[in-house]
User: What shape does this take?
Amino acid sequence: MPLLINALGWIGAGVMLYGYAMVSLSRMAGDGMPYQTINLVGAIALMINTAYHSAWPSAILNVVWGVIGLVAVARMVMARTRKKTVNVP
Assistant: This one.
């Protein structure tokens, strides 16, 4: 189990760094669904890893990061739903 948790942590860190690099290099929009999804997935992976290792400051940071990402994704989904509803004859 520790190997799986450590791998999850490394993957989460890599995913978040990838998203940050793509936004910093203007290859991805910072307010788009792909970036928000990357942040959410990375935060969840790091949250699990840091909680497992009792690194509570990092775990709490990633919980907050994940909540922010979840809210952003939910708002985007709701906006898309409203847009589709308005455009339907």
Remarks:
- The chain has a mean pLDDT of 94.
